[in-house]
Amino acid sequence: MSEVFKGSFTQQEPIPEDAIEAAVAVMRHGRLHRYNTTGDEVAEAALLEQEFAALVGTKYCLSVASGGYAIATALRAVGVGHGDRVLSNAFTLAPVPGAIAAVGAVPLLVEVTEKLVIDLDDLANKLGQAKVLLLSHMRGHICDMDALMALCDAAGVTVIEDCAHTMGAAWRGTPSGRHGAVGCYSCQTYKHVNAGEGGLLVTDDPEIAARAILLSGSYMMYERHLASPPQAAFEKIKYQTPNISGRMDNLRAALLRPQLRGLPDQVGRWNERYHALEFGVRNTPGLSVIERNQNERFVGSSFQFLLRGWTAAKVNDVLSRCKRRGVELKWFGAAEPSGFTSKYDSWRYIDITPLPKSDEILAGLVDMRVPLTFSVDECSLIARIIREEVSSVFQQN
Ligand SMILES: *Cc1c(COP(=O)(O)O)cnc(C)c1O
């Protein structure tokens, strides 16, 4: 009898007790809106921003309603407007081109490499066509950030980082989100901290920070922020910046503050699971693991491998065999978007130029979530199942 896995790929851990207590305290006093404070009370949202700024070593931080909102706000705050082109990864998820579309701008997609990072050669060729790069560290894979920043700096291209999958990660010791002008994070259930929904934006630029705070809907209460620029930064722009409400509330901020303190431990736990998966499937015939760069400190909250050159029928066969044994894999080569997975050619509101290199990679790219509710042993079991099924399908001819 072959082994079967019984866990759920969508079940995250419960909210920690201290976070539940903090959230209940907010509900008991009822002041959920971030600017609803009494006396010298400091709002949970303002404290969250201060603590996240300290965690990633940034001057300014703003908490908002979602990761996608953080990205759209960053784009607006650096001056992206209607009809502007914004460079971004072809290999990312729908909220990334969606945030570009939200500001009326036009995504210009860049190829992905077999390491699942942005292709720096293709980027270099396209840098002349845009003023901004929205760099998505998709599935936690971080490109050579030194090389990328050198290219973008030389071309005068502003970099915004989408760190939805890299909260807690770093490149050569610098936290992800701290290389570009702005870093954006998601606090949604499937990411690294869980408030249901939520986002964070960080920057060292006082003007970008002031614009982002005003954009998020500060009702001119910006003096109640802690991780914010001096008042003078607001004076210059406060009549010119629209209020596009998307604030975080104190309830979510209360849920997040204790989770941020626990993040380094969680990263360690994710990586134990990631390494068990990687170790278990490495050297399977027909399968390539994604080799990680030693400068990358990543968060193994998801796991990918490549079945390069496989037919769609064979990849589908692997997926359904694994599914029968309880292992839910996603495939980036599918013709139709499904679940959270979508390929760039399904974003049909964009004028898409085919990306042959990305097509080849995505056709073989298999993806899996790694919730912390899985034990390390369960990850080894999942790897055994993948290895057996990939091997059997690979051997068929
Ligand atoms: C989840 C996600 C986002 C946006 O986050 P939301 O909080 O869901 O808006 C952005 N980029 C990537 C790659 C994501 O996976």
Automatic annotation (TrEMBL):
GO terms for biological process: polysaccharide biosynthetic process. Pfam families: DegT_DnrJ_EryC1. InterPro entries: DegT/StrS_aminotransferase (IPR000653), PyrdxlP-dep_Trfase (IPR015424), PyrdxlP-dep_Trfase_major (IPR015421), PyrdxlP-dep_Trfase_small (IPR015422). One of its GO terms (molecular function) is pyridoxal phosphate binding. PANTHER family: DTDP-4-AMINO-4,6-DIDEOXYGALACTOSE TRANSAMINASE, TRANSAMINASE. This is Aminotransferase class I/classII domain-containing protein. It comes from marine sediment metagenome. The lineage of its organism: unclassified sequences, metagenomes, ecological metagenomes.
